[in-house]
Amino acid sequence: MGIFNAFFKTTAPKEEKKLPWIALSAIDQLNEIEQKSKLKTQLIFKHSTRCGISKMVLNQFIDRYNFTEDDFDLYYLDLLSFRAVSNEVSHKFQVLHQSPQIFVIKNGITVAHASHNGINQIDLLQYI
Fold first, then answer.
1. CATH code of the domain occupying 18-127
2. Which of 16, 78, 82, 93 lies 20 to 30 Å from 103, alpha-carbon distance?
3. Alpha-carbon span 24 to 30, nearest angstrom
4. Closest CA to 47 of 117, 99, 82
5. What's this model's pTM, rounded to 2 decimal places?
6. Cα–Cα distance between 47 and 38 in angstroms, integer?
């Protein structure tokens, strides 16, 4: 069997990493996020479920995310299912809509944001 294993690597599938996502699906949650950001930094990840680039960036974000629920509240917004919420996020936090996109909310305002590959360039550690 040794030669068989050399040709056909038999490794266990990669375990999927789970993040402490909070579903963002209602506009009234944005006021909660604004208020909670006065005590703990809030992150909003806007994702397009039909976009390959968005999926790639999301997977990279998940792989690199190494924080706990004590560090951030982490919101996930499916912008195709909740377009009105997505529009209001952009309006309330004063950032032009992009997809995918991340917002870092602290003390009621957007202190950082990025879209596409820039999402994984943000040093989230500095916002804890």
1. 3.40.30.10
2. 16
3. 8
4. 99
5. 0.86
6. 25
Three-state DSSP class for 7? Answer: helix
Rounded-to-integer distance, Cα 74 and Cα 24, Å:
9
Which tokens hold the place of 41?
A: 């930094």
How confident is the model over 41-77, as pLDDT tens digits? 999 999 999 999 999 999 999 999 999 999 999 999 9
48 Cβ contact list (under 8 Å, min separation 6): 54, 79, 80, 99, 100
Domain spans, the chain:
18-127
Angle subtended by helix axes 83-92 and 29-36, to nearest 10: 40
Q: What dihedral do alpha carbons 35, 84, 68, 113 form, nearest 10°?
A: -90
Residue type present at position 98: Q
Distance CA 85, CA 78 (A): 9
**Among residues 89, 92, 2, which one has the least CA distance to residue 46?**
89
Strands 101-106 and 109-115: antiparallel
Up-side HSE of residue 36: CA atoms within 13 Å toward CB?
A: 17
